[in-house]
Amino acid sequence: MKPYYQDSAVTIYHGDCREVLPSVGRYELMLTDPPYEIHAGAGGGCFGNRDHLVQTGGFTDGGVNFDFLDSVENWFCFCSRLQLPELIMRAKVRARWNLLTWYKPNPVPTCNNKYLPDVEYIVHAFTGGRLFGDMAVKSSFMLHPCGNKETAHPNEKPLPLVNKLVSLGTLAGETVVDPFAGSGTTGRAAKDLGRKAVLIEREEKYCE
Fold first, then answer.
1. Residue 179: C-alpha distances to residues 12, 34, 70, 109 (Å)
2. CB 26 within 8 A of CB 40
3. CB 35 within 8 A of CB 179
4. In the prediction, which pLDDT does 39 show?
5. What is the mean pLDDT of each run of 10 residues along the chain (208 residues)?
6. Is 71 exposed, middle or buried (0-12, 13-18, 19+ CB in 10 A)?
């Protein structure tokens, strides 16, 4: 498949990752933020209306089939609380795994007897010798505010978080693949840190 865009560090493919991934070639890490599985409440209140989910892009509540991880030895995957059991099950078949958390000090307020949405999860599955960086980088707790986005993508992740994951999972010159590229933060982080990135995105407006 011909790349949508390519420079010395980043290659972007416009397409379905199930079709593109087999032709990507060798890479050292997969780092991705696929659609979350989110259930809107049936009652009233702040998040009882499904319009909230539709307004974030219309696809954030559908989840994803994680089969694309089965052949990958080293990966980071953002997920919702509902997706944690399956992702942890898949991570346990690798040599090592860990659960990282992103804590948001400024979460969207909730009501109707619900917890604040102030935590997101990242599951890391990896092989021996594939965890890099000093002790300061290896904290599994990440504190960073949400909001202040730089793109129109509804699920853009903060660059400092993705920088940390790229540093934990790769060395300079290695390649990171993101099959749900979205806002392109993985590519930005990889390029800034002296890595290469292959990004796959099925929405052309986000490729652009």
1. 10, 8, 14, 31
2. no
3. no
4. 59
5. 96 96 96 82 43 41 85 96 95 97 91 86 97 92 90 91 97 98 97 98 96
6. exposed
Complete DSSP assignment for 97-154 = EEEEEEE-SSPPP--SS-----EEEEEEEE-TT---S-TTT--SEEE------SSS-T
Tokens representing residue 44 in the block: 């009233």
pLDDT value for 50:
39
For residue 52, the model assigns a pLDDT of: 38
Q: What whole-number distance in Å separates Cα of residue 94 and Cα of residue 56?
A: 33
d(CA 142, CA 140): 7
Q: Environment class of residue 125 by beta-carbon count within 10 Å: exposed (0-12), middle (13-18) or buried (19+)?
A: buried
CA distance 133 to 138: 7
What does the block give as tokens for 66? 């994680």
Helices marked H in the chain — which ranges?
Answer: 17-20, 51-55, 84-91, 159-169, 185-192, 204-207
